[in-house]
Amino acid sequence: RMEGQGSYTLPTGTEYRGTLRDGMFDGEGELIFPNGGTYRAVWHRGVPTQGKYTFADGLGYKDKKWHYCDGYDRRFYTEICSGLKPAVFSQLTNLDPPRKIPEGCYDCGDGFYNPETRVIVDYKLRFLRNADDDEHEWIIRTCRKAWGETTEHKPKP
């Protein structure tokens, strides 16, 4: 069994780095998720006893008094840190600049969705899953879509 300091990569791509005892996470260690987020915790026999999740952009999650993206303040975390841009430069995602979405696809948060094939791939274009009817409808209704044409202002001649 795994014992001591080390790392272990799960089939999902999530990596654990820290102390292992009798084949389990035990002691200080962190999970590093494929999306860049991390969860640092103190583990006891594979179960976290205390820990903190940090998103890929550096925002730390709080389970109490969470004020990020609530009904009163809808700014992205990068806007909170760096300030708002002028109105002509809309910030559509927390990433600045936003990811370029392949033509005909949607950005569904963990990857791109092609509504014709109903396949979701990660941002490196590796297969993640097939969307069921409910997920398909949700993505079409709520997610950002690649534009097939530009929408620049064209002054009258």
TrEMBL record:
Q: Which InterPro entries match?
A: MORN, Morn5
Tell me which UniProt keywords the record has, alphabetically.
Cell projection, Cilium, Flagellum, Repeat
| Matching Gene3D superfamilies | Histone H3 K4-specific methyltransferase SET7/9 N-terminal domain (2.20.110.10)
Q: Which domain of life is it from?
A: Eukaryota
PANTHER family associated with the record = MORN REPEAT-CONTAINING PROTEIN 5
- Its recorded name reads MORN repeat-containing protein 5
Its subcellular locations are: Cell projection, Cilium, Flagellum
Taken from the UniProt entry, a GO cellular component term is: motile cilium
Q: Does the keyword Glycoprotein apply?
A: no
| Gene designation | Morn5
